[in-house]
Amino acid sequence: MVTITDELALAQARKADELMATSNTNPLTGIPVVIKDNMCTKGIPTTCSSRMLENFVPPYDATVVEKLNGCGAVVVGKTNMDEFAMGSSTEHSALFTTHNPWDLSRVPGGSSGGSAVAVAASEAIYALGSDTGGSIRQPAGFCSVTGLKPTYGRVSRYGLVAFASSLDQIGPLTQDVTDCALVLNVLAGYDPRDSTSVPYPTPDYTQILAADLKGLRIGIPKEYFVEGMQAEVEIAIKAAIGKLEELGATIDYEVTLPHTPYALAAYYIIAPSEASANLARYDGVKYGFSYLETGSMWEAMEKTRQYGFGAEVKRRIMLGTYALSAGYYEAWYLKAQKVRTLIRREFDQAFAKFDALVTPTSPTLPFKIGEKIDDPLQMYLSDVCTLPINIAGVPAISIPAGFADGLPIGMQIIGKPFSEETILKIAHAYQQATDWHKRRPEI
Ligand code: GLN
User: Fold this and answer.
1) Is residue 326 packed enough to be buried (19+ CB in 10 Å), middle (13-18) or exposed (0-12)?
2) What is the pLDDT of residues 387-431, one digit of tens each?
3) Residue whose CA lies nearest to ligand 1 atom number 10
4) pTM of the model as a whole
5) How many CA atoms lie within 13 A of 120 on its CB side?
6) Atom in ligand 1 nearest the alpha carbon of residue 135
7) Could you read off the pLDDT of 312-327 as tens digits, one per residue?
8) Which residue is catalytic, options 50, 93, 115, 135?
9) pLDDT digits (tens, 9 = 90+) for 29-57
10) Which domains are present in the chain?
11) 165 counts as catalytic
């Protein structure tokens, strides 16, 4: 955790006690939660694990934080992350590295690594994370917890520090699917303060959990069993799919989503482009780090950004600025957007035939700390299975689906837009029939 909010937690616990003395309670009343440090918390530092925002104390709460506070939640801390949510291992935090509780020499995944670890290590009952290309699901898979990225527009992004606004979504990391449904019940819904939030009815996500999987059609897209994938992962996911079949689902192993191999390239144009625009606001003038040892305004801005941002953030800003610049825009940004449309249509076509698609969450087991830090492309590749889902804007959940050499393996279940209840139902049925999600690391 970047900040432990002990005083706030005690005050909120007292308030929860008062609420519990009335009938005005929610299942989340009095339950300890941690929040990724890119969601604004009034009066509590919100650093994005960056030097740039190390001393930033927001004057307002994100909508999701306001909603949790409204039901008497107890916030015990803000969690470590890759700086500005750019990364897959939490090693890009400018503050410190978070370790995987299943093997302390390995990464917990990222960028919501601190949130996943807090739940896996029972430091909190649940956590909030954000997911732009896999940042909830990939660490959930690496730490053996349940992590949901809702449909784009399902949960308000108001007060989430922007990384790539057309891809970012907030979601829960929990011990199991039942908890995930309880938390989603509180988070989901229209917010007039987020123009991309969708005024679509929110069901009670806990209501559908009991049913079996009869009549559900599940597709297995071939392209997600990629070259370079670790055999242990493939074996575990195939076994998990067999379990879904036993539970009554109809499985089709011959599904193809042919544009999948282009998703990574499109993502690494679109996300950095949006990041370069979003991060232009950190100029040392209104808030955040400010370099003052100069009389020149331009030098102050340059040095503020030079010292305030880490290497990965600068890499993204440069990639994005390049892709958007005159003469390159058509060749890179516009082309990536066209690829995005193709990927989206492909998912639409698949969902005309299937209720859900199932894939591994990551192609590998959690890797060693330091293993990929000097090789950005290898790091980017750990999101091959998760980032097409953000490109399409659809919902997906990662749930524990096995272990190899004591290391967790995650299964991803992808749904149509606004069909969170369907993927929760499948995930819940799987958890009723297995106990991977009940294992906890010994620390
Ligand atoms: N790992 C991906 C990236 O570095 C996704 C991060 C995220 O979802 N926030 O961009």
Assistant:
1) exposed
2) 999 999 999 999 999 999 999 999 999 999 999 999 999 999 999
3) 86
4) 0.98
5) 32
6) 8
7) 999 999 999 999 999 9
8) 135
9) 999 999 999 999 999 999 999 999 999 99
10) 3-262+337-438 (3.90.1300.10)
11) no
